[in-house]
TrEMBL record:
Its cofactor is Zn(2+). Binds 1 zinc ion per monomer. Keywords: DNA replication, DNA-binding, DNA-directed RNA polymerase, Magnesium, Metal-binding, Nucleotidyltransferase, Primosome, Transcription, Transferase, Zinc, Zinc-finger. This is DNA primase. It comes from Fructobacillus americanaquae. The gene is dnaG. Its EC number is 2.7.7.101. The lineage of its organism: Bacteria, Bacillati, Bacillota, Bacilli, Lactobacillales. A zinc finger (CHC2-type) spans 40-64. RNA polymerase that catalyzes the synthesis of short RNA molecules used as primers for DNA polymerase during DNA replication.
């Protein structure tokens, strides 16, 4: 039986995991104020209702109500148990020594693990053959001489060679791997369900890894000049999807996170060359097909993407297609297009002119999308010809429409100076295009209430002899504390969470948060004779918090407490309390008001409601004696309450 995961391990996993990074594997999130917002992956969410707080490490959907921490998210989304969710994230963090906490894996998990182990072993085997055997001599000479790569670089990127003698198949048979596993791995060619040979025979291979560094497949280059299939990728499978994977993303991610722009290339060798020149945020697509998934993955960690496609027609077409895709999927991302001199690709520049020239070109040849698209619109046109010039202008109007006003003015002036057009006429024609183009609706992000953190401690709770005084009347329920400033809106999110709550329940929420935030308030309220929350869920939350503290927690952490509770309905209540009251100051007057509502207002209102129901029943039954008696009780109850 697996051992219980220590709290120290859980705390370490939680502290090293960013909930935004995890949830962005399932849905695109956009930063809005202090939170991240996106469509909820648990239901069809046309108006993005999911909010993620990366400071508190919690999430909440204002549509379906799901809320919790990174662990509960994985439990809901992937069907993990709590320990499985913790261990899954621990594996991503490369934390070792956790095998003793691992339960029995499912058959599907075992299958995936076995295939991934085969991929990792294949990479090591192929690299060993390339660097250390006579079978790899020709391929190694090609990489050394033609591609100008040293052994250190080859090892860093896991390059290898697959000889024509089915070496991986022999390895698999030696280790008694099942034929079904080999077929599902897609590392072999089969005929009528029978494995015949290694898929990448006689090819140099590049391992394709996911963002965690797990090998997912290979891309191979044939050494046979007569082979019409010069390049070959692993086929699409549950393990390998070109639309989901970016070459070198695992090694580029730290550099991109630290501030380097994400640079998207066409070829694997372009990525390696760029990284050797210092552009370590380099990744590549499988060919030229940038996908929404690629853009989403990159936009999670950067606000700048540079497209470095080849200068040929295919590369230019790919760049033109990628710009609107990035604008649509990640409008907050700044886009640049690197146009290398003479239409060369980065690997050619490195090999022919050296790393310093490539470094300069990558840093100083960046165009804005508008510059690039206008240059592309000029290609193949004789702009001295009036007809072709007018076609060029028609092609540029949509480009300029997406540009900033400064760029619009700059290029209109440039057209006027270079081609002799009247500037006023150009501006008029452009404005006519703007006026007649279809209007696209802009979806406004939901506004949020934000409470500033108090800068000074105004609690004044030091007087341990303070006794609660909840006898004074009040006109309305006070808030837990008074923020220095407060913004409200029609889409107030905290109000959404607490919509329909009675005054009593709001008082219970405020008092519970006061007790959590202030040990003095906790002791004072616990000392009130016969105190109890009206609603049992708040009584239970208070008891759970006391147990949480006894467990050794030095301070309240929302994510840690939610994981301690592990009850979806209670966690949602706690999320509502924290959002409404979590950043406000604890004040005596507020606590007095809460206690008055809970201890006096709530019982009185409950008694009045019960009497009114009895009176209504007596009226329906025409029971005059009961009406007189109940009416007298109601009058006496109101008189007694007014005298308190």
């Amino acid at each position: 039986m697996a051992e219980r995961i220590p709290q120290s391990v859980i705390d370490e996993v939680r502290s090293q995991t960013n909930i935004v990074d995890v949830i962005q594997n399932y849905t695109q999130l956009v930063k809005r104020g202090r939170e991240w917002n996106g469509s909820c992956p648990f239901h069809e969410d046309r108006r993005p209702s999911l909010f993620v707080d990366d400071k508190k490490q919690v999430f909440h959907c204002f549509s379906c109500g799901r809320s919790g921490t990174v662990f509960s998210f994985l439990m809901e989304k992937d069907g993990y148990s709590y320990p499985e969710a913790v261990l899954s994230l621990a594996k991503d963090l490369n934390l070792s020594g956790l095998d003793k906490y691992q339960g029995q894996p499912s058959a599907r998990q075992e299958q995936f693990a076995a295939i991934f182990d085969l991929y990792q072993n294949a990479e090591r085997l192929y690299t060993h053959i390339l660097l250390n055997t006579t079978a790899g001599e020709q391929a190694l000479a090609y990489l050394h001489d033609d591609r100008q790569l040293d052994d250190e670089t080859i090892k860093r990127y896991g390059l290898g060679f697959v000889p024509a003698n089915n070496v991986l198949l022999a390895y698999a048979k030696e280790h008694n791997l099942a034929d079904k596993l080999l077929l599902e791995s897609q590392l072999f060619i089969d005929q009528d369900g029978e494995i015949s040979r290694d898929r990448f025979n006689n090819r140099i291979v590049w391992p394709i890894k996911d963002v965690r560094g797990q090998v997912r497949g290979f891309s191979g280059r044939s050494l046979d000049p007569n082979n019409p299939a010069k390049y070959m990728n692993s086929p699409e499978s549950p393990f390998f999807n070109k639309g989901d994977l970016l070459y070198n993303f695992d090694q580029a991610k730290p550099a991109i996170r630290s501030g380097q722009p994400a640079m998207i290339f066409e070829g694997f060798m372009d990525v390696i060359s760029a990284a050797l020149a210092g552009a370590t945020g380099a990744v590549a697509t499988m060919g030229t097909a940038l996908t929404e998934h690629h853009v989403t993955d990159l936009s999670k960690i950067t606000d700048k993407i540079l497209l470095v496609y080849d200068g040929d027609a295919a590369g230019q077409k790919a760049a033109k297609r990628s710009i609107p895709l990035i604008r649509q999927v990640a409008p907050q991302v700044e886009i640049g297009v690197v146009s290398l001199p003479d239409g060369r690709d980065p690997d050619e520049v490195r090999r022919d002119q050296g790393l310093e020239v490539l470094k300069q070109d990558l840093g100083h040849s960046v165009l804005t999308p508008t510059e690039f698209l206008i240059q592309a619109a000029k290609n193949g046109k004789n702009l001295e010809n009036q007809s072709q010039y007018l076609d060029f202008l028609k092609e540029t109007w949509p480009i300029l429409a997406a540009a900033s006003p400064v760029e619009q003015d700059y290029f209109l002036r440039q057209f006027s100076e270079e081609y002799g057009s009247d500037l006023a006429a150009l501006r008029q024609e452009f404005q006519e295009f703007i006026a007649h183009r279809p209007v696209q609706a802009v979806q406004q992000a939901p506004s949020k209430k934000q409470w500033p953190q108090p800068e000074t401690d105004q609690n004044s709770w030091a007087d341990a002899a303070w006794q609660p005084d909840y006898s004074d009347g009040f006109e309305s329920l006070a808030a837990l504390g008074t923020p220095t400033s407060k913004t409200a809106s029609a889409d107030d999110l905290a109000g959404h969470l607490n919509a329909g709550l009675s005054r009593t329940e709001r008082a219970e929420q405020g008092l519970l948060m006061a007790m959590i935030k202030s040990p003095v308030a906790m002791n004072v309220v616990k000392g009130v004779p016969d105190f109890a929350f009206v609603h049992p869920e708040y009584q239970l939350l208070m008891m759970l918090y006391e147990a949480y503290v006894k467990q050794g927690q030095q301070s309240f952490d929302l994510a840690s407490f939610l994981d301690f509770v592990q009850k979806p309905d209670l966690n949602q209540k706690m999320m509502a309390i924290d959002r409404e009251f979590g950043t406000l100051e604890v004040q005596r007057d507020s606590v007095n008001d809460y206690l008055r509502v809970i201890m006096k207002e709530a019982p009185y209102e409950s008694q009045v409601e019960a009497l009114n129901k009895k009176i209504a029943l007596a009226k329906n039954q025409h029971d005059e004696m009961a009406l007189i008696q109940l009416g007298t009780e109601l009058i006496n109850l109101r008189r007694k309450y007014s005298q308190q």
